[in-house]
Amino acid sequence: MLKKTDLGKAGEKFACQYLEELGHSVLFSNFRNRFGELDIISLNEEVLYCTEVKTWSSQKHFHPLYCFNETKRNRMRKVYRYLVCKYPALSHLTVSFSLAHINEKREVSFYSHLF
Questions:
Q1: In which domain, by residue range, is 45 found?
Q2: In Å, what is the CA distance from 52 to each residue of 64, 67, 68?
Q3: In CATH, what number is assigned to the domain containing residue 10?
Q4: pTM of this structure
Q5: Which positions make up the signal peptide (predicted)?
Q6: CA distance 103 to 56
Q7: How many domains does the chain have?
Q8: Which pLDDT tens digit goes with each residue over 54-91?
Q9: Cβ-proximal residues to 106 (8 Å cutoff; 6+ apart), any chain
């Protein structure tokens, strides 16, 4: 059985591959600053996707969408603002805060434009 950190890293790698199959260009993974982290930042058709990756068993009785509480949303927004300050060429793009949920069968559920 994988440790939680190894499972998370494997899930993020799998999510990057999934997004690339959808036509995304992955710009950054694990982009962090003092406010938090964006697991994957990708670009597809003038939309910048800031994606949280959750690798959870479907046996848990808690859907990953519930992880987007107000604190999490605010942290993701702060990291995004830092990103566009550091890379102003990205500031004109529409932003989509998204979730990639990967279950134990390596099935991906992708939820875009959550907030």
A1: 4-111
A2: 10, 10, 9
A3: 3.40.1350.10
A4: 0.91
A5: none
A6: 5
A7: 1
A8: 987 666 667 778 888 999 999 999 999 999 999 999 99
A9: 14
